[in-house]
Write a sequence for this structure.
């Protein structure tokens, strides 16, 4: 989500240049903890300022020799000045409006296709869970091979879970927890298992679901599957 | 804590969902590293230990039955508070004794994320160095006046005989060039 903080650009400069009171600086740091967009912008600017201060001679101090005020002007400067103006807020407003219109159309199309209110929202991937899936969950001592459901597999109703697990010498697996979450990461099902298969017969609503295999609180596997309406 | 998404994450951690703890770490690993490195200049092993301590303290705090989300304005504020407290604690310990690792070493996830963060910061600095060097002179001048000489927009405006609005646009545009080039190299979104 686009950051809505007022005077965002000025606030970054004030923070980096030590112009905020302790309370204002603390409040702004808390904002940074919840706003990746501002934190990234601040990190770029903070690093640039550090470089300018530490390596001024080699980085920026040559401008005085290269350009004198009399040399300013001409077509090049005129064009770049126009670009500067184009980089103003209206460019961002225009881009935001365009993106919003496209998103609105895409959403309406999806909803129309599925002919159900909020239906498309149930299939929206969770950014955080997808991010965790990209980092292969690992266990220091356990090797697991999932047979069903395969990632992104679709089901109409029952979901069959099955996996194989390799026990290391002298190790006993014990019981495992099968947990299922909806696409917002909210837990909806949990079952402790002593066998490595399970047939889920709950009637899940159409949507995207994530599931994990856990042992004593340690996540061994994270996968996902879809429940879709039967074809008409 | 009013944000529904943050409350849900807290509830899931309290219910024992390991994956929710991972989500919390992914969400806050950037700001925690940023805050630690901004305050402390030390070796990488100490950074890993401290980030690990912070993360474990955050999780322990949330897991406690006595944790009251309503006492905190947001999860961001809680995580920031624990981070701040642990950094201050680190300085206190530094004063009285040479710091040694206490408890378990950091997990692989935390150790890797610290290494990745430091590497990214180094790459960012290298990339920005090249970019700043290649900026047109008028943008270098604007950045120098603003960030090295620390002049206000009004002062720069007087020095360059430009309206304040144009000075702001020039600085803004210089920063935009840096940001754009940074995204092109480091980010896909």
């Amino acid at each position: 989500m686009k950051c809505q903080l007022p005077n965002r650009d000025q606030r970054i400069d004030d923070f980096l240049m030590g112009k905020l009171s302790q309370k204002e600086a603390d409040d702004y740091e808390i904002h940074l903890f919840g706003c990746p967009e501002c934190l990234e912008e601040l990190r770029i600017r903070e690093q640039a300022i550090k470089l300018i201060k530490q390596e001024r001679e080699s980085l920026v101090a040559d401008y005085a020799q290269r350009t004198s005020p009399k040399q300013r002007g001409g077509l090049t400067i005129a064009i770049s000045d126009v670009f500067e103006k184009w980089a103003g807020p209206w460019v961002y407003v225009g881009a935001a409006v365009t993106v919003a219109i496209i998103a609105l159309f895409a959403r309406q199309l999806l909803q129309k296709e599925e002919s159900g209110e909020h239906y498309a929202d149930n299939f929206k991937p969770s950014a955080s869970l997808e991010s965790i899936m990209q980092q292969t969950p690992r266990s220091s001592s356990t090797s697991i091979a999932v047979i069903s459901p395969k990632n992104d597999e679709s089901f109409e109703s029952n979901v069959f879970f099955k996996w194989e697990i390799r026990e290391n010498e002298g190790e006993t697996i014990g019981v495992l927890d099968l947990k299922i979450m909806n696409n917002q990461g909210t837990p909806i099902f949990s079952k402790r298992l002593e066998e490595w298969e399970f047939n889920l017969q709950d009637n899940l609503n159409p949507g995207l679901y994530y599931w994990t295999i856990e042992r004593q609180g340690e996540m061994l596997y994270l996968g996902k599957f879809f429940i879709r309406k039967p074809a008409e | 804590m009013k944000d529904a998404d943050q409350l849900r994450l807290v509830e899931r951690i309290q219910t024992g969902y390991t994956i929710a703890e991972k989500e919390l770490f992914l969400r806050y690993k950037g700001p925690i590293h940023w805050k630690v490195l901004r305050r402390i200049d030390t070796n990488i092993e100490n950074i890993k230990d401290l980030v690990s301590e912070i993360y474990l303290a955050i999780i322990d705090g949330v897991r406690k039955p006595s944790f009251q989300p309503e006492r905190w304005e947001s999860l961001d504020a809680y995580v920031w508070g624990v981070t701040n407290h642990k950094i201050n604690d680190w300085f206190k310990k530094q004063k009285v004794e040479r710091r040694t690792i206490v408890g378990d070493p950091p997990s692989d996830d935390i150790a890797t994320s610290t290494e990745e963060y430091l590497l990214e910061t180094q790459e960012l600095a290298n990339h920005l160095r090249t970019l700043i060097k290649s900026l047109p002179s008028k943008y270098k001048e604007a950045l120098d006046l603003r960030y090295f000489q620390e002049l206000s927009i009004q002062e720069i405006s007087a020095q360059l005989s430009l309206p304040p609005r144009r000075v702001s646009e020039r600085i803004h545009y210089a920063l935009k060039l840096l940001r754009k080039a940074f995204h092109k190299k480091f980010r896909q979104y």
User: Anything to note?
Assistant: Residues 66 and 72 of chain A are 11 Å apart (CA to CA).
